[in-house]
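Hey, quick one: can you model this chain's 3D structure?
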Amino acid sequence: MKIALIVLGAFAALVIVVVAAGMALPVEHRAVREARYERPSAEIFALIADPKKFPSWRSSVESVEILPDSNGRRRYREVGSDGAILYEVEESVPNERLVTRIADRSLPFGGRWTFELIPSGGSTIVRITEDGEVYNPVFRFLSRFVIGHTRGLDTYLRDLARQLGETGELVIASGWLAIAGFPAEGVRSVRL
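Sure thing. Here's the predicted structure for all 192 residues.
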């Protein structure tokens, strides 16, 4: 009985620490990643701006439902590893910039993703900026210390590399991701 009380007390203390730490963290965060691809920006934009194609190349997306526009903005619902999430396109500048945001306020998280396509010789740098919000303090703790704010961005850039036929190593460096062989201060690398 004494051991059970000690285990229960330790678990309660852990929960209190997680909640307190989560409450101390800011609701908002910013994460940035970028990668260089040996493709023109028009080819990349055609992929990232067409939600109907997401299930064919994004590993975390099982299906997409295209919804009627709202206030002149395209809307779609992604279904995947994070459940069903409603998105809205805030800005779309072909071959240059795409801004999407979560349009469902009932979720424990939200945010905006800015995709910038920067021509660089015969290649394109794709920079993704996540301006995220995590409302629940437990999820905020997990997002910051367990999952990591850049995990989804890294997965997205790896999936894009695979779809474009880019193979080799992705080097995660100083808050950005680059295909190996291009300038980067490598911190660690991940095989595709």
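One thing worth noting: The mean pLDDT is 84.
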